[in-house]
Design a protein that fits this description.
Blueprint (H helix, E strand, L loop, with lengths): L2 H5 L8 H27 L11 H8 L18 H13 L12 H10 L1 H10 L14 H14 L16
Helix pairs in contact: 4-7, 5-6, 6-7
Length: 169
């Protein structure tokens, strides 16, 4: 066999100096490149949390999670017109987001045809763009009174519900 055959099976690294440069370019250079990129991206001046508006940051950190509201359970029931003006008129007076306008017989006719109970259920639980009205500032019976008021303005003949006898004042 000749000496040439033995040389064809060796790798490209023949000296320790070549091995050292290969290690530098294969491992050390990429690590240094990544470190340089991270430093370059993170060197921008960024204010710490709350440094720009410390009062706002403090208020956000200590804000309430929930609230408890105490109400007089024995207060007299509000009339349908009062509940309408306080809670329903914001959308139903102008017909916002598909709400039927107060007194618009054509818009209210299909709703009235569903019946009073269906209208009250829709008001209490919400329907379409209207959120649930039950459990808010007014009692469910007061919301039902407002539904009767609005439907009656469009031609229905619903009686405004009265307080149950045990709760009547």
């Amino acid at each position: 066999m000749s000496e040439h055959a033995h040389d064809t099976h060796t790798g490209p690294i023949k000296t320790p100096k070549q091995l050292w440069w290969t290690a530098v370019f294969a491992f050390v250079a990429p690590v240094l490149l990544i470190m340089g990129l991270v430093f370059n991206v993170s060197k921008a001046d960024k204010p710490q949390a709350g440094a720009v508006d410390p009062e706002l940051a403090t208020a956000q950190r200590i804000q309430k999670i929930g609230t408890v509201e105490l109400r007089d359970a024995n207060r007299p029931l509000a009339a349908g017109v009062d509940v309408y003006q306080a809670q329903c008129a914001a959308c139903h007076a102008a017909g916002l987001v598909g709400a039927p306008k107060l007194g618009d017989k054509d818009a209210w006719a299909p709703r009235i045809a569903q019946g009073y109970d269906a209208l009250v259920n829709s008001a209490l639980k919400g329907k379409g763009a209207m959120g649930a009205q039950g459990g808010a500032a007014f009692r469910d019976l007061e919301i039902a009174r407002a539904v009767a008021y609005m439907a009656n303005q469009a031609g229905a003949q619903f009686a405004e519900p009265e307080a149950p006898a045990a709760q009547a004042q």
